[in-house]
Specification:
The structure is a homodimer.
Chain A: E1 2-9, H1 16-27, E2 33-46, H2 52-67, E3 73-80
Antiparallel strand pairs in A: 1-2, 1-3
Chain lengths: 81, 81
């Protein structure tokens, strides 16, 4: 089983990395872009036979404890077999 | 319209950041984890009225030119209204 975790800065938090990417894209000639935000993608592979409900609980705990800074970031995840 | 771009290291490329996260999770007591890979999530908001097919072509071009290092990274994306 694999967990895909998406971590983004909260809407209200400025994203200088995203602004830099936006400026880079515009300098390459891309037009009509409103905003760019850069986040993290964490993929966790569980050992075979992992329990889905237990894994979901653990992933939530991992995000709260280590992966996301919940003061400025929000996260969501999905589990795939 | 919004493009969500997922950028990952290719399978064959070592991911020291992922290994560090794996070690961190294990030191927090999480068991039964096989692997952790860390990638990037880039979200691009297009100005209203953007053409879907054109946007898809542009996002591919953005990835090839700026966002992903295609020597060591692979990407995929989806478009949502």
């Amino acid at each position: 089983m694999k967990a895909r975790i998406y971590i983004r800065l909260k809407e209200s938090v400025l994203d200088p990395q995203g602004k830099a990417v936006l400026a880079g894209l515009e300098s390459l000639g891309f037009k009509g872009l409103e905003d760019v935000r850069v986040g993290k993608l964490v993929e966790i592979t569980f050992a075979p036979g992992a329990n889905r409900a237990k894994a979901a609980g653990e992933v939530k705990e991992m995000c709260e404890k280590l992966l996301a800074n919940t003061v400025i970031e929000e996260y969501n995840f999905d589990l795939a077999d």
